[in-house]
Amino acid sequence: MFGIPLPWLLVGLCITLFGTYRGGYHFGWSDRDKEMQIEIARKNEEARQTEQKLTEQINTTATKLQETTNAVNKKQSDLNRLIAAGRVRLPTPSCVQAPTSPTPAPTNSPETRSEPDRQADQASDAERATLQAIAEIVAQGDKNTAQLNACIDAYNDVRNLLNGNK
Question: Rounded to two decimals, what is the model's pTM?
C-alpha cells in the first residue's frame, strides 16, 4: 500500500500550490487596500486644500461685491440728497420756441399779471420724481453690473484653480 507515493505527492503538491496562491492573493489584496487608503487620504487632503482656496477666493469676491454695493448705495443716497435739494436739474432745450400768437400788451395791474407759485430756478415735483426714477435705474444697473462681474470673477477663479490641478 505504501508502494505508490506519486499520487500522494501530487495531492500534497496541489494543496501546497493552492495554499500559496490563496495566501498571495489574500496578502496582495490587503497590500492593495492599504495603498488605496493611502491614496484616498492624499486625495482627500488635496481636495481640502483646494476647497480652502476656493472658499478664500469666493469670500474675497463677496467682500469686493459688498464694497462695490456700498459705494453704489452711497453714490445713490448722495444723488438723492442733491435731487431733493434741487441742485440736480434736467437740461432744458436750448432753442426757445417763439409763440405763434401775438402777445398782448403788458399791463401793470395785478389782476392781469400771472405770477408763478415758485421761483424760476426751482425744480418741479415732476422733474424731481423723474430725476429720482433715473437715479434709481442707474443705481440698480450699477448694482447688477457689479454682481454680474463678481459672478464672472468667481467662476473664472474656480475654473482656473480646478483646471490648474489637472
Answer: 0.59
